[in-house]
Amino acid sequence: MRQHLTSTSPLSAFLAEVVMTSYYLAEPPQRSAGLLHDAEMKCLKVVAAYGPMQMRELAAALHVTKPRVTKLIADLHERGFTECTVGPDKRTKLVQSTPAGLELVASVRRRYQELANRIEAKLGPDKAQTLKQLLAEITPLTDFESTIKRKGMS
Fold this sequence. Notes:
Shape: elongated
Number of helices: 7
CATH topology: Arc Repressor Mutant, subunit A
Largest sheet: 3 strands, antiparallel
Distance between the termini: 15 Å
Radius of gyration: 16 Å
Strand content: 5-15%
Number of domains: 1
C-alpha cells in the first residue's frame, strides 16, 4: 500500500534524508505561511512510511520526547496531514497520514527524484555514487527502519 512512497532511487532517498534531517527537531524555527518546517516534514515522512503507529513509537523513531511528538502531530493534524484513531486496546492513540499527508510526502519525494536525476545526468552514475558516499561521511542520518526494527515496532 505504501510502496509508492519508497520507490525512489537510492540517491533520491539519500538527498531527501540529507535535506530533511534537521537540527530543528528539538526546537523548530518559524515556518513560512503554508509550508511545513523540517521537523513536521520529518515526522510526516515517518508516519506516512510506518503508520499507523503509537505516539511513543513515533517519538522513538524521531529520537525526541513524546510531548514534542504530540505537538508535531497536533500541528500536522490541524493542517489536515495526519489523523488519530483509537488503538485496539482502546487506551492507545494511533496516528496515521491522511490522503493529503501521503500526497505531500509523495510530492516531496518526486521533487527529490527530479533533483537526483539532474545531478546524476550532470555527474554521471559513477560520480553521483561518489557524491552519495562523500555526503554520507559528513552527514548524520537517522535510519528509521532500523530504529523501528530494533525497538520492535514493526
